Amino acid sequence: MMRQFVNLQTDLIRTFVTVVDLGNFTETGQILGRTQPAISLQIKRLESLVGAKLLQHTGKTLELTSDGQTLIGYAREILRMNDRAVANFQRAQLLGTLRVGLPTDYAIGYFQRVIAQFAKSNPEVSLDVRCNWSRDILSSLHTDDLDLAIAITDAMPAPYVSLYWSERPFWVCGRDYHYSLERPVQIIAHPEGCYYRKRMIEALSTEGREWRICFESPGISALQNAVLDGMGVTALTKKTLLPGMRVLSPKEGFPLLANLHVGLFYKHVKASDAALKLIDQIANGVSAFRKPTYSRA
Fold first, then answer.
1. Of 274, 262, 294, 250, whose CA–CA distance to 162 is shortest?
2. Phi, psi of 148 (to 5 degrees)
3. Which pLDDT score, from 0 to 100, does residue 129 have?
4. Which residues contact 156 (CB under 8 A, 6 or more apart)?
5. What is the pLDDT of residue 109?
6. Residue whose C-alpha is closest to residue 294's, from 165, 142, 195, 197
7. What is the pLDDT of residue 119?
8. Positive or negative, the Cα torsion across 129, 133, 136, 142?
9. With bands split at pLDDT 50, 70 and 90, how would you rate the model's confidence at 295?
10. Which residues, in sequence order, are CB contacts of 256 under 8 Å at separation 6+?
């Protein structure tokens, strides 16, 4: 039996994503130049096409259903590819200011290089790059103080995420560091609220191991230097491992750490041509060193 194909119309997808980003039909209608009833009708048409309820009201809040969570990531990708293709054929001139948020504790050097390459290729775009804690970066994105962000979260999918991937951090110490399983683990960590710190403490506590924070700093370089100086152990990912460090294994008394979840976040309704082009370059870069998951939420 020949398969029947369902074509998801781009205008319906755009309405769906905009409703999710803005949280209501009225503002979506204002942005897209349609009435609120027209927006409602488009959502119903999309639901009819996919054969599932996509949105529901919980009190006054508009939320995605489980099927809506499945569709939204694909919808963001469909729009991103559509709008980048159109911009390419229209030879869109990339202008304006692009505000980008990067996490201080994850592969920041790598993403800085991607952004620097974009800046060289697009000199008319003014870049405003802000490095901060992931939770603060996402807060700035939600309040429209950033155009796009790379951030770590405790779980995925998450609001506004376009693609994401997981990293398992590992315990590291200086090459000549000596420790004793009879003494509390000397932890080098970012301040309270850091996902790496949380995973180290949870892993040790589950094993019944004693620990203490011996060095604390918000900057990744300070933590790396403290490790190299032999002050204790910390958790890093491959992109932040430096020569002179060694990885500690469960056989040495350091239990496996839970995965971190890293995502590329943006609001499509707010995305300029410049933002979409940089998002493309970041997505391509991620594919080169990680296998990304395109958001299902």
1. 294
2. -155, 160
3. 94
4. 164, 166, 261, 263, 293, 295, 297
5. 79
6. 165
7. 92
8. positive
9. low
10. 168, 203, 250
Q: Please give the Cα distance from 239 to 115 (Å, whole number).
A: 17
Q: Which residue has the tokens 């505000």?
A: 99
Report CA 73 to chain centroid distance, whole Å.
Answer: 13
129 alpha carbon, distance to own chain's centre? 16
How far apart, in whole angstroms, are the C-alpha atoms of residue 284 and residue 287?
5
Kindly list the structural domains of the chain, giving each domain's residue range(s) and its CATH number in brackets, ordered by start: 10-86 (1.10.10.10), 95-165+260-294 (3.40.190.10), 170-252 (3.40.190.10)
Tokens of 191: 């301040």
Tokens of 208: 């019944």
- What are the strands, taking DSSP E only, across 134-248? 148-153, 161-167, 170-174, 185-189, 211-216, 234-236, 245-247
Q: What are phi and psi of 259, to 5 degrees?
A: -60, 150
Does 86 or 295 have the greater pLDDT score?
86
- How does strand 61-64 pair with strand 211-216? unpaired
Short-list 144, 132, 94, CA closest to 218: 132
DSSP state of 270: G
> What does R_g of the chain's alpha carbons equal in angstroms?
22
Here the tokens at position 196 are 């790496």
The pLDDT of residue 187 is 98
Closest CA to 141 of 156, 164, 159, 166: 159
Mutual angle of helices 66-89 and 10-22, in 10-degree steps: 120
Which whole-number Å values give the CA distances from 197 to 50, 98, 169, in the listed order?
A: 42, 31, 11
Amino acid identity, position 255? P
Does residue 280 contact residue 148 with C-beta atoms inside 8 Å? no
